[in-house]
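ping. complex inputs:
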Amino acid sequence: MEHGALSDQSDGSAPTLDALRDCFEGTVPAVLATVDPSGMPNVSYISQIHYVDPDRVALSYQFFNKTRRNILSTRTAAVEVVDPLTTAFYQLDLDFETTQTEGPLFESMKARLAGIASHTGMAGVFRLMGADIFRVRAIRQVVTPKIARAVSQVAALPALRRVLTDMARAGTLGDLFDRTLDSIARHLGITNLMILVPDDTRSALVAVATWGYPASGIGSEVRLGDGVIGVAAREKVAIRIDHMSTEYLYGSAVRDRLLADAGPDAPEAPGIAFPGLTRPESQIALPIIWQGMLVGVLFAESPMPMRFTHEEEDTLGCIAAALAAHISALNAEEDAEEQHAPTRASAFDATLAIRHFAADDSIFADGEYLIKGVAGAILWKLVRAYVATGASEFTNRELRLSADLRLPSHAENLEARLVLLERRLREKALPIQIEKTGRGRFRLVVNAKLVLQDA
Amino acid sequence: MSDRTLHITKRVPSPFQAAGPIVLPAEVVEFIHSGVSVIVGVVGPDGRARAGRALATRVLPSGVIRLMYPTEGNAAITAAAQQGGPIAATFSAPISHRTIQLKAPSSRAAQLEPDDRVCVDQQMDAFADVLRMLGFPPYFLKAFCDNRSQSISVLSFVPQCAFEQTPGPGAGCEL
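pong. complex structure:
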Protein backbone atom coordinates (compact mmCIF):
# COMPACT_ATOMS: atom_id res chain seq x y z
CA MET A 1 0.00 0.00 0.00
CA GLU A 2 1.24 3.48 -0.79
CA HIS A 3 0.67 5.43 2.36
CA GLY A 4 -0.03 9.10 2.65
CA ALA A 5 1.18 10.62 -0.56
CA LEU A 6 -0.57 13.79 0.59
CA SER A 7 -0.40 12.97 4.26
CA ASP A 8 0.07 15.84 6.63
CA GLN A 9 0.10 13.79 9.82
CA SER A 10 1.87 15.92 12.37
CA ASP A 11 4.33 13.20 13.29
CA GLY A 12 5.14 12.49 9.67
CA SER A 13 3.97 8.90 9.86
CA ALA A 14 1.58 7.55 7.27
CA PRO A 15 -1.90 6.55 8.44
CA THR A 16 -2.56 2.83 8.44
CA LEU A 17 -5.85 1.07 7.91
CA ASP A 18 -5.69 -0.29 11.46
CA ALA A 19 -5.59 3.28 12.79
CA LEU A 20 -8.65 4.25 10.75
CA ARG A 21 -11.12 1.72 12.06
CA ASP A 22 -13.13 4.29 14.02
CA CYS A 23 -13.94 5.79 10.62
CA PHE A 24 -15.69 2.55 9.65
CA GLU A 25 -18.14 2.49 12.57
CA GLY A 26 -20.72 4.27 10.40
CA THR A 27 -21.15 7.33 12.60
CA VAL A 28 -20.47 9.63 9.66
CA PRO A 29 -21.50 8.13 6.32
CA ALA A 30 -18.60 7.51 3.96
CA VAL A 31 -18.51 8.87 0.42
CA LEU A 32 -17.80 6.52 -2.47
CA ALA A 33 -16.62 7.84 -5.83
CA THR A 34 -16.19 5.74 -8.95
CA VAL A 35 -15.54 6.50 -12.57
CA ASP A 36 -16.96 4.89 -15.70
CA PRO A 37 -14.88 3.82 -18.69
CA SER A 38 -15.66 7.13 -20.41
CA GLY A 39 -14.15 9.07 -17.53
CA MET A 40 -17.40 10.33 -15.99
CA PRO A 41 -17.38 10.22 -12.18
CA ASN A 42 -20.19 8.96 -9.97
CA VAL A 43 -20.57 9.72 -6.28
CA SER A 44 -22.78 8.23 -3.59
CA TYR A 45 -22.86 7.37 0.07
CA ILE A 46 -21.80 3.89 1.03
CA SER A 47 -23.76 2.17 3.77
CA GLN A 48 -20.93 0.14 5.15
CA ILE A 49 -17.16 -0.08 4.96
CA HIS A 50 -15.88 -3.20 6.65
CA TYR A 51 -12.32 -3.59 7.86
CA VAL A 52 -11.09 -6.91 6.47
CA ASP A 53 -7.38 -6.90 7.30
CA PRO A 54 -4.53 -4.35 7.43
CA ASP A 55 -4.56 -4.06 3.63
CA ARG A 56 -8.17 -4.57 2.60
CA VAL A 57 -11.67 -3.28 3.15
CA ALA A 58 -15.02 -4.55 1.94
CA LEU A 59 -17.85 -2.34 0.73
CA SER A 60 -21.48 -3.38 0.88
CA TYR A 61 -22.97 -4.13 -2.53
CA GLN A 62 -26.73 -3.68 -2.30
CA PHE A 63 -28.02 -2.70 -5.73
CA PHE A 64 -26.84 -3.25 -9.26
CA ASN A 65 -26.48 0.44 -10.00
CA LYS A 66 -24.04 2.82 -11.70
CA THR A 67 -21.56 2.46 -8.84
CA ARG A 68 -21.58 -1.29 -9.26
CA ARG A 69 -21.17 -1.10 -13.05
CA ASN A 70 -18.26 1.32 -12.65
CA ILE A 71 -16.53 -0.91 -10.12
CA LEU A 72 -16.86 -3.94 -12.36
CA SER A 73 -15.63 -2.07 -15.44
CA THR A 74 -12.73 0.01 -14.07
CA ARG A 75 -12.05 -2.10 -10.94
CA THR A 76 -11.19 1.05 -8.98
CA ALA A 77 -12.96 3.24 -6.42
CA ALA A 78 -12.20 5.96 -3.89
CA VAL A 79 -13.77 6.56 -0.51
CA GLU A 80 -13.63 9.47 1.87
CA VAL A 81 -14.14 8.67 5.53
CA VAL A 82 -14.33 10.81 8.66
CA ASP A 83 -13.01 9.94 12.08
CA PRO A 84 -16.04 10.78 14.24
CA LEU A 85 -13.86 11.38 17.30
CA THR A 86 -11.31 13.79 15.79
CA THR A 87 -13.16 14.96 12.63
CA ALA A 88 -10.06 14.15 10.56
CA PHE A 89 -10.83 13.23 6.93
CA TYR A 90 -9.12 10.44 5.05
CA GLN A 91 -9.25 9.40 1.43
CA LEU A 92 -8.60 5.84 0.35
CA ASP A 93 -7.79 4.69 -3.18
CA LEU A 94 -9.16 1.19 -3.72
CA ASP A 95 -8.51 -1.61 -6.21
CA PHE A 96 -11.39 -4.07 -6.57
CA GLU A 97 -10.47 -7.72 -5.99
CA THR A 98 -13.57 -9.86 -5.68
CA THR A 99 -17.15 -10.16 -4.44
CA GLN A 100 -18.20 -12.63 -1.77
CA THR A 101 -21.86 -13.60 -1.63
CA GLU A 102 -21.66 -16.02 1.30
CA GLY A 103 -19.39 -17.04 4.13
CA PRO A 104 -18.12 -15.42 7.32
CA LEU A 105 -17.27 -11.96 5.93
CA PHE A 106 -20.57 -11.75 4.05
CA GLU A 107 -22.56 -12.78 7.13
CA SER A 108 -20.70 -10.36 9.34
CA MET A 109 -21.49 -7.48 6.95
CA LYS A 110 -25.06 -8.67 6.44
CA ALA A 111 -25.74 -8.54 10.17
CA ARG A 112 -24.29 -5.05 10.55
CA LEU A 113 -26.15 -3.82 7.48
CA ALA A 114 -29.40 -5.09 8.95
CA GLY A 115 -28.68 -2.94 12.02
CA ILE A 116 -27.83 0.07 9.87
CA ALA A 117 -30.99 -0.40 7.80
CA SER A 118 -33.12 -0.69 10.91
CA HIS A 119 -31.55 2.41 12.43
CA THR A 120 -31.95 4.53 9.30
CA GLY A 121 -35.48 3.44 8.40
CA MET A 122 -34.20 1.40 5.48
CA ALA A 123 -35.25 -2.06 6.69
CA GLY A 124 -36.56 -3.92 3.66
CA VAL A 125 -34.66 -1.61 1.29
CA PHE A 126 -31.09 -2.41 2.26
CA ARG A 127 -30.23 -5.99 1.46
CA LEU A 128 -26.68 -7.20 1.12
CA MET A 129 -26.10 -8.78 -2.28
CA GLY A 130 -22.36 -9.07 -1.86
CA ALA A 131 -19.27 -7.99 -0.01
CA ASP A 132 -17.01 -6.21 -2.51
CA ILE A 133 -13.44 -6.66 -1.36
CA PHE A 134 -10.87 -4.00 -2.25
CA ARG A 135 -7.15 -3.75 -1.69
CA VAL A 136 -6.31 -0.33 -0.25
CA ARG A 137 -3.80 1.20 -2.64
CA ALA A 138 -3.25 4.51 -0.84
CA ILE A 139 -4.43 6.36 2.27
CA ARG A 140 -4.27 10.15 2.53
CA GLN A 141 -5.21 12.26 5.49
CA VAL A 142 -6.75 15.30 3.81
CA VAL A 143 -8.16 17.16 6.80
CA THR A 144 -6.18 17.18 10.00
CA PRO A 145 -7.82 16.32 13.33
CA LYS A 146 -9.63 19.30 14.79
CA ILE A 147 -10.36 17.63 18.10
CA ALA A 148 -8.03 15.74 20.40
CA ARG A 149 -9.06 12.11 20.65
CA ALA A 150 -11.00 11.63 23.89
CA VAL A 151 -9.39 9.41 26.47
CA SER A 152 -11.37 6.19 26.72
CA GLN A 153 -13.05 5.49 30.05
CA VAL A 154 -11.70 1.96 29.88
CA ALA A 155 -8.13 1.38 28.79
CA ALA A 156 -8.59 -1.83 26.87
CA LEU A 157 -5.14 -3.35 27.18
CA PRO A 158 -4.73 -3.19 30.98
CA ALA A 159 -8.37 -4.26 31.37
CA LEU A 160 -7.73 -7.22 29.10
CA ARG A 161 -4.65 -8.12 31.10
CA ARG A 162 -6.68 -8.17 34.32
CA VAL A 163 -9.38 -10.33 32.74
CA LEU A 164 -6.83 -12.83 31.42
CA THR A 165 -5.14 -12.96 34.83
CA ASP A 166 -8.49 -13.71 36.51
CA MET A 167 -9.27 -16.41 33.96
CA ALA A 168 -5.97 -18.16 34.57
CA ARG A 169 -6.96 -18.73 38.21
CA ALA A 170 -9.91 -20.95 37.28
CA GLY A 171 -9.66 -24.54 38.48
CA THR A 172 -12.73 -25.97 36.79
CA LEU A 173 -14.67 -25.27 33.64
CA GLY A 174 -17.63 -23.84 35.54
CA ASP A 175 -15.28 -21.64 37.53
CA LEU A 176 -13.67 -20.48 34.28
CA PHE A 177 -17.02 -19.47 32.79
CA ASP A 178 -18.09 -17.55 35.90
CA ARG A 179 -14.73 -15.85 36.42
CA THR A 180 -14.59 -14.76 32.80
CA LEU A 181 -17.99 -13.09 32.82
CA ASP A 182 -17.46 -11.56 36.23
CA SER A 183 -14.11 -10.18 35.17
CA ILE A 184 -15.41 -8.76 31.88
CA ALA A 185 -18.19 -7.01 33.78
CA ARG A 186 -15.79 -5.58 36.35
CA HIS A 187 -12.90 -4.56 34.13
CA LEU A 188 -14.57 -3.77 30.82
CA GLY A 189 -17.88 -2.45 32.16
CA ILE A 190 -19.96 -4.76 29.96
CA THR A 191 -22.81 -5.96 32.09
CA ASN A 192 -24.97 -8.29 29.99
CA LEU A 193 -22.99 -11.37 29.07
CA MET A 194 -23.36 -15.05 28.21
CA ILE A 195 -21.28 -18.06 27.33
CA LEU A 196 -23.01 -20.69 25.23
CA VAL A 197 -21.75 -24.08 24.14
CA PRO A 198 -22.75 -25.98 21.04
CA ASP A 199 -24.98 -29.04 21.19
CA ASP A 200 -23.83 -30.58 17.94
CA THR A 201 -26.46 -33.29 18.01
CA ARG A 202 -29.25 -30.73 17.80
CA SER A 203 -27.72 -27.79 15.85
CA ALA A 204 -28.22 -25.57 18.87
CA LEU A 205 -26.22 -23.59 21.40
CA VAL A 206 -26.97 -23.81 25.10
CA ALA A 207 -26.28 -21.07 27.68
CA VAL A 208 -23.93 -22.39 30.39
CA ALA A 209 -23.11 -19.09 32.10
CA THR A 210 -24.85 -15.72 32.10
CA TRP A 211 -24.29 -12.36 33.76
CA GLY A 212 -26.54 -9.38 34.37
CA TYR A 213 -30.00 -10.83 33.70
CA PRO A 214 -32.91 -11.15 36.14
CA ALA A 215 -33.15 -14.91 35.37
CA SER A 216 -30.03 -16.94 34.79
CA GLY A 217 -31.42 -18.62 31.69
CA ILE A 218 -28.87 -21.41 32.02
CA GLY A 219 -29.93 -24.20 29.70
CA SER A 220 -31.77 -21.88 27.31
CA GLU A 221 -31.07 -22.47 23.67
CA VAL A 222 -30.28 -20.62 20.48
CA ARG A 223 -30.58 -22.39 17.16
CA LEU A 224 -27.56 -22.41 14.88
CA GLY A 225 -28.04 -19.50 12.46
CA ASP A 226 -30.50 -17.57 14.63
CA GLY A 227 -29.59 -14.05 15.77
CA VAL A 228 -26.05 -12.81 16.19
CA ILE A 229 -25.17 -15.81 18.41
CA GLY A 230 -26.40 -18.40 15.94
CA VAL A 231 -24.78 -16.72 12.96
CA ALA A 232 -21.47 -16.26 14.81
CA ALA A 233 -21.52 -19.97 15.65
CA ARG A 234 -22.50 -21.14 12.18
CA GLU A 235 -19.98 -18.96 10.37
CA LYS A 236 -17.30 -19.00 13.10
CA VAL A 237 -16.91 -15.24 12.81
CA ALA A 238 -17.50 -12.30 15.11
CA ILE A 239 -20.91 -10.74 14.54
CA ARG A 240 -21.58 -7.23 15.79
CA ILE A 241 -24.69 -5.08 15.48
CA ASP A 242 -24.62 -1.42 16.52
CA HIS A 243 -28.34 -0.78 16.14
CA MET A 244 -30.68 -3.66 16.73
CA SER A 245 -32.55 -5.13 13.82
CA THR A 246 -35.68 -7.20 14.21
CA GLU A 247 -34.08 -9.61 11.73
CA TYR A 248 -31.49 -10.51 14.36
CA LEU A 249 -33.52 -9.98 17.50
CA TYR A 250 -33.70 -13.20 19.40
CA GLY A 251 -37.15 -13.08 20.91
CA SER A 252 -40.60 -14.46 20.71
CA ALA A 253 -40.40 -15.15 16.97
CA VAL A 254 -37.54 -17.56 17.45
CA ARG A 255 -39.21 -19.12 20.44
CA ASP A 256 -42.31 -19.66 18.33
CA ARG A 257 -40.21 -21.38 15.72
CA LEU A 258 -38.68 -23.66 18.33
CA LEU A 259 -42.17 -24.66 19.34
CA ALA A 260 -43.19 -25.27 15.75
CA ASP A 261 -40.03 -27.27 15.06
CA ALA A 262 -40.60 -29.39 18.12
CA GLY A 263 -43.88 -30.63 16.67
CA PRO A 264 -47.07 -31.82 18.32
CA ASP A 265 -45.46 -34.86 19.94
CA ALA A 266 -42.88 -32.84 21.80
CA PRO A 267 -43.04 -32.50 25.56
CA GLU A 268 -45.34 -29.76 26.78
CA ALA A 269 -42.66 -27.27 27.72
CA PRO A 270 -40.35 -25.91 25.04
CA GLY A 271 -37.40 -25.25 27.31
CA ILE A 272 -35.96 -22.39 29.27
CA ALA A 273 -36.62 -18.77 28.35
CA PHE A 274 -33.70 -17.00 26.72
CA PRO A 275 -32.54 -14.43 29.27
CA GLY A 276 -31.46 -11.70 26.80
CA LEU A 277 -32.41 -8.04 27.03
CA THR A 278 -35.90 -7.22 25.76
CA ARG A 279 -34.73 -4.16 23.84
CA PRO A 280 -31.03 -4.49 23.07
CA GLU A 281 -29.47 -1.92 20.75
CA SER A 282 -25.97 -3.36 20.51
CA GLN A 283 -25.00 -7.01 20.40
CA ILE A 284 -21.76 -8.82 19.77
CA ALA A 285 -21.02 -12.54 19.54
CA LEU A 286 -17.53 -13.98 19.36
CA PRO A 287 -17.00 -17.61 18.41
CA ILE A 288 -14.77 -19.57 20.77
CA ILE A 289 -12.67 -21.73 18.49
CA TRP A 290 -10.02 -24.30 19.37
CA GLN A 291 -8.08 -26.00 16.60
CA GLY A 292 -10.67 -24.97 14.05
CA MET A 293 -13.58 -26.35 16.05
CA LEU A 294 -16.34 -24.28 17.62
CA VAL A 295 -16.38 -24.89 21.37
CA GLY A 296 -18.61 -21.98 22.37
CA VAL A 297 -19.80 -18.42 21.84
CA LEU A 298 -19.05 -15.42 24.02
CA PHE A 299 -21.94 -12.96 23.79
CA ALA A 300 -22.44 -9.42 25.07
CA GLU A 301 -25.26 -6.94 24.62
CA SER A 302 -26.31 -3.49 25.73
CA PRO A 303 -29.40 -1.28 25.61
CA MET A 304 -27.12 1.49 24.27
CA PRO A 305 -26.61 1.84 20.52
CA MET A 306 -23.04 1.61 19.22
CA ARG A 307 -21.83 0.23 22.55
CA PHE A 308 -19.27 -2.07 20.97
CA THR A 309 -16.59 -0.73 18.66
CA HIS A 310 -13.70 -2.42 16.92
CA GLU A 311 -11.74 -2.08 20.15
CA GLU A 312 -14.31 -4.01 22.19
CA GLU A 313 -14.48 -6.56 19.40
CA ASP A 314 -10.69 -7.00 19.56
CA THR A 315 -10.71 -7.21 23.35
CA LEU A 316 -13.55 -9.72 23.53
CA GLY A 317 -11.94 -11.63 20.66
CA CYS A 318 -8.77 -12.01 22.75
CA ILE A 319 -10.87 -13.21 25.69
CA ALA A 320 -12.66 -15.71 23.45
CA ALA A 321 -9.30 -17.02 22.27
CA ALA A 322 -8.11 -17.34 25.86
CA LEU A 323 -11.36 -19.11 26.75
CA ALA A 324 -10.72 -21.64 24.00
CA ALA A 325 -7.24 -22.39 25.33
CA HIS A 326 -8.39 -22.64 28.95
CA ILE A 327 -11.35 -24.85 28.04
CA SER A 328 -8.98 -27.17 26.23
CA ALA A 329 -6.49 -27.19 29.12
CA LEU A 330 -9.17 -27.88 31.72
CA ASN A 331 -10.47 -30.72 29.61
CA ALA A 332 -7.07 -32.34 29.24
CA GLU A 333 -8.18 -34.53 32.07
CA GLU A 334 -6.18 -37.29 33.59
CA ASP A 335 -8.57 -39.94 32.45
CA ALA A 336 -9.66 -41.47 35.66
CA GLU A 337 -10.30 -45.18 35.68
CA GLU A 338 -13.78 -46.29 36.48
CA GLN A 339 -13.73 -46.82 40.17
CA HIS A 340 -17.25 -46.68 41.41
CA ALA A 341 -17.96 -49.35 43.88
CA PRO A 342 -21.67 -49.92 43.92
CA THR A 343 -23.27 -48.53 47.01
CA ARG A 344 -26.70 -49.34 48.17
CA ALA A 345 -29.23 -46.64 47.71
CA SER A 346 -30.32 -45.19 51.00
CA ALA A 347 -33.90 -45.22 52.09
CA PHE A 348 -35.63 -41.87 51.58
CA ASP A 349 -39.01 -40.58 52.53
CA ALA A 350 -39.20 -38.25 49.53
CA THR A 351 -39.48 -39.42 45.93
CA LEU A 352 -38.46 -37.68 42.72
CA ALA A 353 -40.14 -38.68 39.45
CA ILE A 354 -37.78 -38.38 36.51
CA ARG A 355 -39.35 -38.63 33.10
CA HIS A 356 -37.31 -39.03 29.93
CA PHE A 357 -38.50 -38.27 26.38
CA ALA A 358 -36.36 -40.18 23.94
CA ALA A 359 -37.24 -37.94 20.98
CA ASP A 360 -35.02 -35.10 22.21
CA ASP A 361 -33.60 -36.56 25.42
CA SER A 362 -35.57 -34.03 27.42
CA ILE A 363 -35.91 -34.67 31.15
CA PHE A 364 -38.73 -33.59 33.40
CA ALA A 365 -38.35 -33.74 37.19
CA ASP A 366 -41.63 -34.02 39.07
CA GLY A 367 -43.35 -32.74 35.92
CA GLU A 368 -41.11 -29.69 35.46
CA TYR A 369 -38.79 -29.29 32.52
CA LEU A 370 -35.16 -29.70 33.49
CA ILE A 371 -32.87 -30.20 30.50
CA LYS A 372 -32.63 -31.79 27.10
CA GLY A 373 -30.16 -32.82 24.46
CA VAL A 374 -26.83 -34.36 25.35
CA ALA A 375 -27.03 -33.11 28.94
CA GLY A 376 -30.44 -34.77 29.25
CA ALA A 377 -29.08 -38.05 27.89
CA ILE A 378 -26.20 -37.93 30.36
CA LEU A 379 -28.53 -37.43 33.31
CA TRP A 380 -30.79 -40.25 32.12
CA LYS A 381 -27.79 -42.60 31.92
CA LEU A 382 -26.59 -41.61 35.39
CA VAL A 383 -29.92 -42.05 37.13
CA ARG A 384 -30.53 -45.40 35.43
CA ALA A 385 -27.11 -46.59 36.60
CA TYR A 386 -27.86 -45.31 40.09
CA VAL A 387 -31.23 -47.01 40.28
CA ALA A 388 -29.92 -50.27 38.78
CA THR A 389 -26.68 -50.62 40.72
CA GLY A 390 -26.53 -47.88 43.32
CA ALA A 391 -23.53 -46.40 41.52
CA SER A 392 -22.91 -42.75 42.35
CA GLU A 393 -19.24 -42.21 41.42
CA PHE A 394 -18.63 -41.66 37.72
CA THR A 395 -15.87 -40.64 35.35
CA ASN A 396 -15.92 -38.51 32.23
CA ARG A 397 -14.16 -41.32 30.46
CA GLU A 398 -16.97 -43.81 30.85
CA LEU A 399 -19.44 -41.24 29.58
CA ARG A 400 -17.30 -40.51 26.56
CA LEU A 401 -17.01 -44.21 25.76
CA SER A 402 -20.73 -44.79 26.16
CA ALA A 403 -22.27 -45.56 22.78
CA ASP A 404 -25.82 -44.70 23.82
CA LEU A 405 -24.95 -41.07 24.64
CA ARG A 406 -24.10 -40.09 21.04
CA LEU A 407 -21.50 -37.70 22.39
CA PRO A 408 -19.56 -35.50 20.01
CA SER A 409 -16.03 -36.76 19.55
CA HIS A 410 -14.29 -33.86 21.31
CA ALA A 411 -14.05 -33.78 25.06
CA GLU A 412 -14.77 -30.04 25.42
CA ASN A 413 -18.43 -30.60 24.87
CA LEU A 414 -18.73 -33.32 27.49
CA GLU A 415 -17.25 -31.21 30.25
CA ALA A 416 -19.42 -28.26 29.23
CA ARG A 417 -22.49 -30.51 29.29
CA LEU A 418 -21.65 -31.58 32.83
CA VAL A 419 -21.31 -27.93 33.87
CA LEU A 420 -24.68 -27.22 32.31
CA LEU A 421 -26.28 -30.21 34.00
CA GLU A 422 -24.74 -29.40 37.36
CA ARG A 423 -26.03 -25.82 37.15
CA ARG A 424 -29.53 -26.77 36.11
CA LEU A 425 -29.81 -29.26 38.99
CA ARG A 426 -28.53 -26.66 41.42
CA GLU A 427 -30.81 -23.94 40.05
CA LYS A 428 -33.87 -26.19 40.42
CA ALA A 429 -32.72 -27.21 43.94
CA LEU A 430 -33.57 -30.83 43.21
CA PRO A 431 -32.74 -33.66 45.60
CA ILE A 432 -30.30 -34.90 43.01
CA GLN A 433 -27.09 -33.00 42.39
CA ILE A 434 -23.73 -33.41 40.69
CA GLU A 435 -20.46 -32.72 42.48
CA LYS A 436 -17.03 -32.77 40.93
CA THR A 437 -14.73 -35.06 42.88
CA GLY A 438 -11.59 -34.51 40.85
CA ARG A 439 -10.33 -34.18 37.34
CA GLY A 440 -12.50 -36.27 35.13
CA ARG A 441 -14.55 -37.53 38.09
CA PHE A 442 -17.85 -36.56 39.61
CA ARG A 443 -20.45 -37.83 42.02
CA LEU A 444 -24.21 -38.08 41.74
CA VAL A 445 -25.61 -37.00 45.10
CA VAL A 446 -29.13 -38.36 45.54
CA ASN A 447 -31.41 -37.45 48.43
CA ALA A 448 -34.70 -38.92 47.28
CA LYS A 449 -36.07 -42.16 45.99
CA LEU A 450 -35.88 -41.94 42.22
CA VAL A 451 -38.83 -43.08 40.12
CA LEU A 452 -37.85 -43.35 36.47
CA GLN A 453 -40.29 -43.13 33.56
CA ASP A 454 -39.18 -43.51 29.93
CA ALA A 455 -41.77 -41.85 27.68
CA MET B 1 -5.10 3.23 -11.70
CA SER B 2 -3.95 0.72 -14.21
CA ASP B 3 -2.57 1.64 -17.60
CA ARG B 4 -5.47 -0.30 -19.06
CA THR B 5 -8.04 2.00 -17.49
CA LEU B 6 -6.14 5.09 -18.57
CA HIS B 7 -6.18 3.73 -22.09
CA ILE B 8 -9.94 3.22 -21.99
CA THR B 9 -10.45 6.68 -20.55
CA LYS B 10 -8.70 8.26 -23.49
CA ARG B 11 -10.31 6.21 -26.22
CA VAL B 12 -13.96 6.03 -25.27
CA PRO B 13 -15.87 9.29 -25.80
CA SER B 14 -18.16 10.33 -22.97
CA PRO B 15 -21.83 9.87 -23.76
CA PHE B 16 -22.44 13.03 -21.74
CA GLN B 17 -20.57 15.14 -24.27
CA ALA B 18 -23.44 14.82 -26.67
CA ALA B 19 -26.08 15.78 -24.12
CA GLY B 20 -27.19 19.36 -23.61
CA PRO B 21 -27.65 21.35 -20.43
CA ILE B 22 -30.73 20.61 -18.39
CA VAL B 23 -32.95 22.97 -16.43
CA LEU B 24 -33.80 21.67 -12.99
CA PRO B 25 -37.43 21.87 -11.90
CA ALA B 26 -38.06 24.54 -9.27
CA GLU B 27 -38.91 21.88 -6.72
CA VAL B 28 -35.51 20.23 -7.21
CA VAL B 29 -33.75 23.59 -6.91
CA GLU B 30 -35.63 24.21 -3.68
CA PHE B 31 -34.52 20.81 -2.39
CA ILE B 32 -30.89 21.52 -3.29
CA HIS B 33 -31.06 24.88 -1.51
CA SER B 34 -32.72 23.47 1.59
CA GLY B 35 -29.58 22.52 3.51
CA VAL B 36 -28.72 19.03 2.39
CA SER B 37 -25.48 17.11 2.35
CA VAL B 38 -23.43 17.65 -0.80
CA ILE B 39 -20.83 15.12 -1.90
CA VAL B 40 -18.65 15.46 -4.94
CA GLY B 41 -16.90 13.07 -7.31
CA VAL B 42 -14.18 14.12 -9.72
CA VAL B 43 -11.42 12.35 -11.62
CA GLY B 44 -7.77 12.76 -10.69
CA PRO B 45 -4.86 13.10 -13.10
CA ASP B 46 -4.26 9.35 -12.76
CA GLY B 47 -7.76 8.61 -14.06
CA ARG B 48 -9.01 7.42 -10.67
CA ALA B 49 -12.10 8.82 -9.00
CA ARG B 50 -11.74 11.22 -6.08
CA ALA B 51 -14.40 11.93 -3.45
CA GLY B 52 -15.03 15.12 -1.52
CA ARG B 53 -17.69 17.11 0.31
CA ALA B 54 -19.16 20.56 -0.33
CA LEU B 55 -20.78 22.95 2.10
CA ALA B 56 -23.51 24.56 0.04
CA THR B 57 -24.93 25.00 -3.44
CA ARG B 58 -26.27 27.94 -5.43
CA VAL B 59 -28.39 27.24 -8.47
CA LEU B 60 -28.38 30.29 -10.75
CA PRO B 61 -31.46 31.18 -12.82
CA SER B 62 -29.44 30.24 -15.91
CA GLY B 63 -29.15 26.68 -14.59
CA VAL B 64 -25.49 26.99 -13.63
CA ILE B 65 -24.68 25.20 -10.39
CA ARG B 66 -22.15 26.74 -8.02
CA LEU B 67 -20.68 24.50 -5.32
CA MET B 68 -18.98 26.04 -2.31
CA TYR B 69 -16.56 23.67 -0.61
CA PRO B 70 -13.82 23.80 2.04
CA THR B 71 -10.45 24.40 0.41
CA GLU B 72 -8.78 22.16 3.00
CA GLY B 73 -9.08 18.52 2.12
CA ASN B 74 -10.42 19.09 -1.37
CA ALA B 75 -7.28 19.59 -3.43
CA ALA B 76 -8.49 17.00 -5.92
CA ILE B 77 -11.75 18.91 -6.52
CA THR B 78 -9.88 22.18 -6.97
CA ALA B 79 -7.43 20.59 -9.41
CA ALA B 80 -10.25 18.98 -11.39
CA ALA B 81 -12.19 22.28 -11.58
CA GLN B 82 -9.09 24.22 -12.64
CA GLN B 83 -8.59 21.77 -15.48
CA GLY B 84 -12.27 21.79 -16.47
CA GLY B 85 -12.73 18.14 -15.57
CA PRO B 86 -16.01 16.21 -15.33
CA ILE B 87 -17.95 16.28 -12.10
CA ALA B 88 -20.69 14.44 -10.22
CA ALA B 89 -22.46 16.03 -7.26
CA THR B 90 -24.98 14.25 -5.07
CA PHE B 91 -27.46 16.08 -2.83
CA SER B 92 -29.01 14.13 -0.01
CA ALA B 93 -31.43 14.80 2.87
CA PRO B 94 -30.29 12.50 5.70
CA ILE B 95 -33.71 12.17 7.31
CA SER B 96 -35.92 11.57 4.26
CA HIS B 97 -33.05 9.90 2.31
CA ARG B 98 -34.16 11.80 -0.78
CA THR B 99 -31.10 11.95 -3.01
CA ILE B 100 -30.38 13.50 -6.40
CA GLN B 101 -27.19 13.31 -8.43
CA LEU B 102 -26.16 15.84 -11.07
CA LYS B 103 -23.40 15.26 -13.60
CA ALA B 104 -21.54 17.43 -16.03
CA PRO B 105 -18.70 16.71 -18.47
CA SER B 106 -16.85 19.83 -17.38
CA SER B 107 -16.52 22.18 -14.45
CA ARG B 108 -14.62 25.37 -13.76
CA ALA B 109 -13.10 27.09 -10.76
CA ALA B 110 -14.79 30.31 -9.66
CA GLN B 111 -14.39 33.09 -7.12
CA LEU B 112 -16.51 33.24 -3.97
CA GLU B 113 -19.27 35.85 -4.40
CA PRO B 114 -21.31 37.57 -1.67
CA ASP B 115 -24.41 35.59 -2.66
CA ASP B 116 -22.38 32.38 -2.38
CA ARG B 117 -21.54 33.33 1.18
CA VAL B 118 -25.23 33.90 1.96
CA CYS B 119 -26.02 30.40 0.68
CA VAL B 120 -23.20 28.91 2.75
CA ASP B 121 -24.51 30.51 5.93
CA GLN B 122 -28.15 29.61 5.32
CA GLN B 123 -27.59 26.06 4.18
CA MET B 124 -24.98 25.24 6.81
CA ASP B 125 -27.32 26.50 9.54
CA ALA B 126 -30.12 24.32 8.17
CA PHE B 127 -27.86 21.27 7.81
CA ALA B 128 -26.42 21.77 11.29
CA ASP B 129 -29.99 21.55 12.61
CA VAL B 130 -30.38 18.24 10.79
CA LEU B 131 -27.11 16.92 12.25
CA ARG B 132 -28.31 17.98 15.69
CA MET B 133 -31.59 16.12 15.16
CA LEU B 134 -29.60 13.05 14.11
CA GLY B 135 -27.79 13.14 17.42
CA PHE B 136 -24.33 14.30 16.39
CA PRO B 137 -22.49 15.59 19.46
CA PRO B 138 -21.77 19.31 19.98
CA TYR B 139 -18.03 18.97 19.29
CA PHE B 140 -18.81 17.47 15.90
CA LEU B 141 -21.31 20.22 15.06
CA LYS B 142 -18.78 22.86 16.07
CA ALA B 143 -16.14 21.32 13.80
CA PHE B 144 -18.68 21.32 10.95
CA CYS B 145 -19.73 24.93 11.55
CA ASP B 146 -16.11 26.10 11.89
CA ASN B 147 -15.76 25.36 8.18
CA ARG B 148 -17.46 28.67 7.34
CA SER B 149 -14.62 30.62 8.91
CA GLN B 150 -12.06 28.66 6.91
CA SER B 151 -11.05 29.17 3.29
CA ILE B 152 -13.93 28.33 0.95
CA SER B 153 -13.45 27.51 -2.74
CA VAL B 154 -16.07 27.59 -5.47
CA LEU B 155 -16.59 25.66 -8.68
CA SER B 156 -19.37 25.87 -11.21
CA PHE B 157 -20.85 23.51 -13.74
CA VAL B 158 -23.84 23.16 -16.02
CA PRO B 159 -25.58 19.86 -15.33
CA GLN B 160 -26.12 17.60 -18.31
CA CYS B 161 -27.88 14.83 -16.42
CA ALA B 162 -29.89 14.50 -13.22
CA PHE B 163 -30.53 11.18 -11.55
CA GLU B 164 -32.84 9.97 -8.83
CA GLN B 165 -30.54 8.39 -6.24
CA THR B 166 -32.87 7.79 -3.29
CA PRO B 167 -31.79 4.37 -1.96
CA GLY B 168 -33.81 1.56 -3.47
CA PRO B 169 -34.31 -0.20 -6.74
CA GLY B 170 -35.38 3.06 -8.43
CA ALA B 171 -32.02 4.66 -7.75
CA GLY B 172 -30.19 5.61 -10.91
CA CYS B 173 -33.25 6.58 -12.97
CA GLU B 174 -32.83 9.79 -14.87
CA LEU B 175 -35.03 12.59 -13.56
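Residues 2-143 of chain A form a domain with the Pnp Oxidase; Chain A fold (CATH 2.30.110.10).
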